Amino acid sequence: MRRTETGTGGSGTQAAASDADVGSTVLASVVMQGRVASVGKDRVVVRDAESGDTFNLFVTNTTRISANGRRVSPQQLTEGTPIQAAFNYIADGDTYATQIQAYPSRRR
In angstroms, rounded to a whole number, what is the distance separating the alpha carbons of residues 36 and 7? Predict the structure, then answer.
């Protein structure tokens, strides 16, 4: 007995590479520890704890920012606040924060 397998499907269309929005392609998702260097209306600048480099993280309406277990606005973050930030590095070079968790500063 001979068996023949066939398949169906593929109802979608294949897009050419030139049709893709390369500028919004996520190259990497990053989680980092650092400190707030400054805060703007739509961004938080973070200094990486390991390298000392600064990252300009854009904040959107989907970014979750919290401190002490409560949601806060970017403007409630103060310079020097220790944070953990998760962000997406986009092909056009921009970085968009997905989550920022502020931690209380340690007293000496």
Answer: 54
